[in-house]
Design goal:
alpha+beta; 7 helices; four-stranded mixed sheet
């Protein structure tokens, strides 16, 4: 890498950045340094810079599905978030940077009269994070309409793959276990009525406003556990929040970690809340459902760093 360019990237690193400033839960201690990238070119340069200097790092997006250790993480962090949406139409396809917010992608698609992503309206986070977690709502998920994705390895090698390479299942892709990151994506959508799609968006945003916290007043990481796989011939997933409420979950709190009053599957940050409080409360939620219904809730939110003495090194900071 060019010496001048390398120095420029080095100068952009925010040393000892506190990750509570970059997550929707507003929790998390310092990292070695943080690099904010908006474009695919900036991401590639940052990855190569850290790889060349043999510096361990992780990549985050909007920080909406994370609980970061109060101790922070002993590695660098690349934050891949664009201040303005980076996307374009190609016929019925939409090409989008992984750094673009998912809601911006939903709105852009609707305004172009393209259907297939309107259900993602109001979901926080970036497109990259949505693909990693196969985000969705109302029985649909982004993997259903993903046509291709450009990935970059931790050594800076790019490749493009189809959705079949990502092993999509409910709220999961194998990117959660692989050392590759989402650079950009192409979604294959269908023509639709702009007016009807806008009406649908308004309805969905209303539902989210009614059931989900305002992140500015109630910091959180969204729904904590995946909905439960169907157990009947109806083949419909059952809301994890229903099981939690039936088991008495709405009355739980540990330290500053509190259950949101309108949704038993959401933990919000109260006064003096710590990441360990959130971890312990999540374990208690799993315990009461296990005792009453005899199955294990599967966590959707990811913990980052050493919480409750796990994990032990930077290669295992996501768990």
């Amino acid at each position: 890498m060019d010496v001048t360019l390398s120095q420029k990237i080095h100068d952009q690193i925010i040393l000892q950045a506190r990750l509570c400033d970059y997550t929707t839960f507003r929790l998390g201690g310092p990292c070695r340094g943080l690099l904010h990238c908006q474009t695919s070119e900036e991401l590639e340069l940052a990855v190569k810079f850290l790889a060349d200097s043999q510096s361990p790092f992780i990549l985050i997006g909007g920080g909406s599905n994370l609980v970061v250790s109060d101790e922070g993480v002993d590695c660098f962090v690349i934050r891949y978030v664009a201040d303005q949406p980076l996307l374009e139409c190609d016929g019925n396809d939409v090409l989008v940077s992984g750094s673009t917010s998912l809601d911006a992608l939903a709105l852009f698609s609707i305004e172009q009269g393209l259907a297939g992503l309107e259900y993602t309206s109001g979901i926080p986070g970036t497109v990259g994070g949505a693909i990693v977690g196969n985000a969705g709502a109302f029985g649909k998920q982004v993997g259903d309409v993903l046509k291709s994705v450009t990935l970059i390895s931790k050594t800076g090698i790019r490749r493009k793959v189809g959705p079949e390479a990502l092993g999509f299942t409910y709220r999961y892709s194998n990117l959660k276990e692989r050392a590759e990151m989402v650079v950009a994506a192409r979604f294959a959508l269908q023509p639709g009525s702009r007016e009807k799609l806008l009406e649908e968006r308004t309805k969905i945003l209303g539902i989210r406003h009614e059931k989900h916290p305002n992140l500015t007043t109630h910091p959180c990481a969204g729904s904590f556990f995946r909905n439960v796989e169907p157990t009947s011939r109806a083949e419909k997933r059952q809301a994890a929040g229903w099981f939690l409420e039936q088991a008495g979950g709405k009355n739980l709190r540990i330290g500053g970690a509190v259950i949101f009053e309108k949704h038993a599957n959401i933990i919000v940050k109260g006064p003096q809340c710590t990441a360990n409080d959130v971890y312990q409360l999540s374990r208690k939620m799993q315990q009461i459902v296990k005792e009453k219904f005899h199955f294990d809730l599967v966590r959707e939110v990811r913990f980052v760093g050493r919480i409750n003495n796990l994990p032990k090194n930077s290669s295992e900071v996501f768990w």
